[in-house]
Amino acid sequence: MPKLEAGVRHDGGDAETGTGLEFGGGIAWTDPARGISLDLAGRTLAVHDSDGREERGLSASFSWHPAPAGGRGPSLTLRRDRGGPAAGGLDALFAPALPGERAGAGSGASRWAVEAAWGLPVLGGRFTGSPHAGFGLAGNVRDWTIGWRLAPEAAG
Asked: DSSP code of 2?
């Protein structure tokens, strides 16, 4: 499934200010019978009022989830990012990156991440609780994540 997006943005912070135009796109492929999916995405800041302002990002992810419709059971995701966020708009705004990490968006920084989860029925089966653990590697920085997600039971 291909995806294209374009957006106008206005930066009014303490650093670069001005208006810019960004373009993004991607493609997703899913094989429900095997429970695998592959997503490729990219984004670039095409023009900006601040001279020399560059932002671009690419990402690829591979996911395995044998029962994706219901959200229950095991899942595993491997992701590779290069540059800034590959998704624009609200996805980039609310990405779990610290502001200092976003500053080098055009620098070609790269990151690998892996996450494993297991969806379980909770609260009488009306919700899916997913304990998850992950590991990320970016240059010399390593981060570990552990948590629990709670979502309404998906119809499936």
From this structure: E
